[in-house]
Amino acid sequence: MALLAFGINHKTAPVDIREKVSFAPDRLQDACKELVSIGDVSEVAILSTCNRTELYCCVNDPDAVVIEQWFSDYHHLSVDDILPYVYKYPDLEAVRHLLRVASGLDSLVLGEPQILGQVKTAYRDATAAGTVGSILNKLCQHTFNVAKQVRTDTAIGESAVSVAYAAVSLAKQIFSQFEKHTALLIGAGETIELAARHIKENNIGNIIIANRTVERAHALAEEVGGVAIALSDIPEHLSKADIIISSTASPLPILGKGSVERAIKIRKHKPMLMVDIAVPRDIEPEVSNLADVYLYTVDDLKEIIEEGLRTRREAAEQAEDIIENQVATFMGWLRSQSAVSVIQEYRSAMMQIKDVELEKALKLLKNGQEPEEALKRLANGIINKVSHTPTTNIRQAGFDGNLEMVEKARELLGIKDAEN
After folding, report:
1. Does 420 map to a domain?
2. Beta strands in 95-217, from DSSP E residues, in sequence order
3. Who's near 183: CB < 8 A, 6+ residues apart?
4. How far apart are CA 324 and CA 329, in angstroms?
5. Domain range spanning residue 215?
6. Are 13 and 75 in contact (CB under 8 A)?
7. How far, in Å, CA of 314 to CA of 117, rounded?
8. What is the pLDDT of residue 414?
9. Which residues of 124-162 are buried (b: 16+ CB within 10 A; e: fewer)?
10. Separation between Cα atoms, residue 308 and residue 72, nearest integer Å
11. Which residues are catalytic?
C-alpha cells in the first residue's frame, strides 16, 4: 500500500480549470465514498479550496491511472483535459507536500493560516465518510502537530503580507489597547472584509462599517459584531473613530480636510489613524497636514508588506527544516508498519509457548511438586522453546557461511560482541 497526493493548484492551473475540478462542500463525503468503492484505493481525503483541489490516498499502485480516470469522470472531463495541470506525489513526497500545504508554505500568500483549518475540515469530512484508515489518520494528526510547531517555532504568520493585514498591524502599533478604541471601516469589498476580520480578531472595542450600499455594510457588520451606516452618515460618526480604514471605488474623495478637522475638534485633539488603501484615494491628501492625524496611503503600506514578506521568507526556511525532519519521522513510522504483523505473530507464538509451559508447571504443583522445582522447569521450558528456532537458524547460517545473517541475528537479539 502506497501514499499518493494527486491534485491541481494555483501554481499549475488557471482559475477556469480550478473551477471545473472543485468539489462542492456538501458533496465531499459522497465523493470520498465513491472513490474508495472503485477498488485500488483504500483510504482517501479530499481538500478542495479556491486555490487547490487535492486527493490524499492510500493506493495499491501509485503509478496506476485509476485516480485521474475517476477524477476526470467525476467532473465530466477527459483525462487529457486535466493531465497538463495535475501533479502526483508518491509516499515521501506526498507527506512532504501535505505538511507544506498545512503549514502555509504552498499558499498563494506565504504563511496564510486559513489553509490549516481547511485541511482539518477535509479530514473531518473524510472521517465522517468512513474513508480514513490508520495511515491517513496518523498522517493527518502528524500534519496538524507539525503545522502547529511551524506556527509556534517560526515567525511564518506574524508579519503583514497583505494590505488589509498591514493596515491593522499599523493600527496596533499606534493603539496598544485595542479594546478601548473604535474603528470605522469605509467600503465593503474584499480588502475591507479582510481588514474587518483582522481587526475583530485583535479585539477592537467597536467597529463601524460604512458603505454606499447599506445592505452590504449590514452583512459585514453582522459577521464582525459591528454596526452599519451609510456613507452619508459618516460625518456624525467620524469623531467616534480612532482608526479609519477606507477602500472604496469612489472616483472622488469620501473624506475631505474640513470634515476631518471638525471631527478632531470634537475629539479634543485625540489622535486619529487614517489608512487610505483606495486608488483613487478616498481621503484628501491635505488631511495629512492636520495635527493629531496620522494619514497613510497604500504606498506607505508597501514598505510594511515588503518587510513582512522578508520576515516570512526567513521563517519559511526554518519551517522547511522542521518539515524535513518531520517527514523523516512519519516515513519511519510508515515503514515500521510493515513489521507490525511480524511482531504480532511473534508475540502470539511466544504467548502460546508461555501458556503451554505454564500449564505444565501448574500440573506439577497440583501433583505435589516443590514450587522451586516447578518454577525452574517453567523457566527452562520457556527458554528452550523460545530459543530453539533462532538458535537452529543461526547454527545453519554459520554452517552455510552466511556470516551476514549471523551478525544480523546478533544485532536483532541485542547480543554484544564478546571482543567489545
Report:
1. no
2. 182-186, 206-211
3. 171, 199, 204, 206, 207, 208, 241, 242, 243, 244, 245
4. 9
5. 163-305
6. no
7. 24
8. 85
9. ebbbebebbeebbeebbebbeebbebbbeebbbbebbbb
10. 40
11. 50
Edge-to-edge strand order for the sheet containing 52-59? Answer: 41-48, 52-59, 2-9, 87-90
Q: How many CB atoms lie within 10 A of CB 258?
A: 12
Whole-number Å distance between alpha carbons of 143 and 119: 9
CA 44 to chain centre: 17
Cβ atoms of residues 1 and 134 within 8 Å: no
Q: Are residues 175 and 199 in the same domain?
A: yes
**Same domain? 139 vs 194:** no
pLDDT at 344: 82
Q: Which amino acid, 50?
A: C
Do both 14 and 146 map to the same domain?
A: yes
Residues 14 and 149 in one domain: yes
Distance in angstroms (rounded) separating the CA atoms of residues 312 and 111 = 7
Q: Are strands 227-230 and 206-211 parallel, antiparallel or unpaired?
A: parallel
Give the residue from 256, 282, 305 where a domain finishes: 305
Q: Which residue has the cell 485509476?
A: 66
Residues 178 and 51 in one domain: no
pLDDT of 390 above 80: yes
Give the global pTM: 0.68
Cβ 226 vs Cβ 209: under 8 Å: yes
Range 177-207 burial, b when 16+ CB lie within 10 A, else e = ebeebbbbbbbbeebbbbbbbbbbeeebebb
Which residues, other chains included, contact 78 with Cβ-Cβ below 8 Å and sequence gap of 6+? 72
Reported as a single tens digit per residue, the pLDDT across 301-330 is 887 788 888 888 999 999 999 999 999 999
Place of cell 538458535: 391
Backbone φ/ψ region at 132: left (φ over 0), alpha (ψ -120 to 50), beta:
beta
Phi, psi of 358 (to 5 degrees): -65, -40
Please report whether residue 335 resides in a domain: no
pLDDT at position 397: 86
